[in-house]
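Example record for the data management plan.
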Amino acid sequence: MREHVTTEQDLVKEIRIEARPETVFPFFTEPEKLTRWLCVEATVDPRAGGICKQIHRDHDGTLYHLSGQFLEVTPPHRVVFTWGWEKPETGTPPGSTVVDVTLEPDGEGTLVTLVHRGLPDTERDGYDGGWQGLLEKLAELAPRS
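Corresponding structural encoding:
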């Protein structure tokens, strides 16, 4: 099992998914799979230095544009990208935070560990619940793909 070096400020979420890492990994790197669980639109170039742009819809229908960049893409075990919103009032501007996802084989399934680094204290609670719900949605979808 890979050790995750984290700080007290990092948001760490883990979930077990009943699908192999090779099945789960594309849900972080392919637009047609990202839009099934994370966002409504995605433009990605999943390689170090490649773009990671997404459009998210809030519960009230408001659209938010995420602008990021892939820092590491190691199929099917790890993907790391910057995360931030193009609207400055969101409190998380582009490039200000990093999402680090590892996928570890766990029997016939996968242990997904998501570490979101650099979140302002004022944003942590919202992201904590947000990532939890999204990862649960991913756990439902991935085994069916």
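Summary line stored alongside the record: The chain has one domain: 11-144.
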